[in-house]
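In keeping with the milestone schedule agreed at the kick-off meeting, the structural modelling team has produced records for the first pair of proteins. Each record is given below as a sequence line and a C-alpha cell line. The laboratory manager (R.T.) confirmed that both were archived under the project's standard naming scheme.
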Amino acid sequence: SQHISQDTAEKIRIAGLLHDVGHGPFSHVFEHLLVKELGKTHEDITVWLIQNSELKDIINEQGCNAEEISRLAVGRLQQPKKSFLDQIISSSVDVDKLDFVVRDTYHTGAEYGYIDIFRVIQTLDILDEDLAVYLGALSALESFIIARIESFKSIYFHRVGRAAQIMLTIALEQANQELGLTGFTTPDEYLALDDYTVWASLRENEKSKETIKKLERRQMLKCAYERTFYEKDSMVSNIFSREKHRKQLKIDIAEEADVELEKVIIDVPTVPSVPYHHSALMEPMEIPVFYKTQKGTRIPQRLSDISKLFDVLKGFINILRVYTEARYRQKVGQASSKILGEIPSSAKISY
C-alpha cells in the first residue's frame, strides 16, 4: 500500500480484467495463426482492442487513460522506477499465473496438493523497483513452482490435448484463405470470430471439414514418439523451436518412414514451462526473493541459491513429440527413434 495509490490500484484492477481480452477463438490455437499470418500475438490484439473499441470510451469515462491501460494490461507500461506495475500483470508470479494454476488444476482434477497463493501474495513486496517474494513464503512459492511445471506437463501439453489442438490448427490453416480468418480490419470483425461461429465455418468449408469431422469422431492424431529434455539453457529449445530445423527433421523422419511429408508433425513447446522472465533486466528463470534483518532491512537473494528445489527445477523442460495418423504410428515411431534416439521401454507410449 505504501507504493501504490488507490488510483493506481484501480488501474491495475482494470488492466488485470482486460489482460486476456485479445484472445481469439480457441485461444492459443488461433494465436498460432495470428503469429504466422500477421506477426501478432494476443497481447498485440489486446492493446489494439482497448485503444480502438468501445472499451476506450468506457475506460476514459472512469477517469483512466485507455492508452496507458492498454499497455499495462500486457505488462508493457514501462513506467520509470516502477517496473513492479508491469510485473503484477506479467512476471513469474503475476496475478494471471497465480490465478490459472490454481483454477486449471482444480477444474481438470489434476491437483498437486495445496497451493497457498494467498501466502505468496501477502509476502510480496517491492525491492528497489521490482516485485519480490519474502523468504518466509518459500514453501508456498516452491509449491506454486511445482504446480506450474506439473500443470504444463499434464494439462497444457497433454498428449491427447495437444493432438486435438494440432488438428484444429491444421483446420484453421486449411480454411483461412477462404474464410478470411486473419483478414479482420476492425475490432467488431475480430470479436465476431467466436468459437461457435468459427467451428461451424470450419465444419462447412471444403478444405477443413474432413479434419473437423475426424475431431468430432475422435479420430485423433497419434503420438508416435516423445522425448523430454531437462535443460538449464535454451539450446535444445532453440534448435527444435526454429522452423527450419523442424522442417528438416520432418523431412528426415518422413523419408526414413517412407510416408508423405504432411503425415509427420513435429510438436514442441514454444515457451518455457517454469515461470518466465520476471523482468527484462533480470537473470532468466530467476524469481527475486529477500529476507529481513532484525532491523527490518530487506536483503535481496537469488532463489536458486536459497532453494535447492528451485535450482534443480529451473530452466527449460523441452518435450519433443512426433505425431502422425494411427496407421503410420509404428513406422513413424521407429524412424523417429532412429533419428532422435531410442526411448527407454519404461517410457513407451501406449495411448
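The second protein of the pair:
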Amino acid sequence: MSHSFISYSVLRRWLWRWHRRAGLIAAVVLSLVTVTGVFLNHTAELSLGKKYVGQAWLLGFYGIPEPKLVSFNLGETTVTGDDKGQLYWGTEPLEKCRGGLVGAAVYEAGFIASCAAELFFFDSSGRLVEKVSAVYGLPTPITQLGQCDERLCIRTPKRLFELDLEVLSFKPLVGVKAVWSKPVPLAERISQAIYADSRRQGLSWERVLLDLHSGRLFGSPGVWVVDLAAILLFFLSVSGFVLWYQHMRAKRTRRNTTDNEFQ
C-alpha cells in the first residue's frame, strides 16, 4: 500500500512538472503555427499568392539574387529587360518576353522592344499595341535590332532582315550598313527600383507563411522544432488525461472512505 502511494505521488509530481514545461515550450511554436494557419486559411481572400515580398533582408534570406539587367536608351527614358524576361519602361513593368531583350528603338509615336523570339510594339504611354512572333513569320532567334539605311532591321545568326511594320513582312538584306541598338548603363535609382520589383516577383507572402507554418523557413532544424511541438502536444494530451484520471480516482477514494466512516 505504501509502495503504491509513493509511486502514485512520485508519478503525479513528475507529470505535473513536465506537463507545465511541455506546455510552455509547445505554446511558443503552437502560437506561431496557429497565427500562420489562420492567415493561410484565408489565402484567397487576402490574395497572399499575388502579394510579393519587397523586404531586401527577407529576399536575401531566401537567397534570391539581384537579377541581371540589360538596358537600351530611348531618348529620355530606357527599356530594360531582366534575366526572367520581364520588360520595363523606365521603372514601369511592361510585358514578359521569350528569349531576353536584345534591343529597343523609337518607332513613330511609340517604341519597339526586341527579344530573341518576339517583337513588341508600344505606344508613347507604354501600352502594348502589337506582339509579333514566329507565328507571323518573324525570323528567330533575333540577336540585334537597329537601323539599316534608315529602315528598321533585325539580325539573326544567319542574315539581316528589314522590318516592314505596315504589312508585317521581313525582307532579307544584303550589303547594307547597320547601326545597332547598344546596351547602356542604368541610373542607380532606376536599377534599384527594377531590382526590387524583379526580386520580389519570385517570393509571395503565401510561400513565406507556408514555410513559417511548417518550420521550413529555418531549414531542417525548423521542421524538427515543429515536429517536436506536435510530440509535446501529444504528451500534454496524455499527461493531462492521466492527471485528470488520478485526480478523479483519488476523489472517489476519499468519498468512499468518508462514507465508510459514517456507516
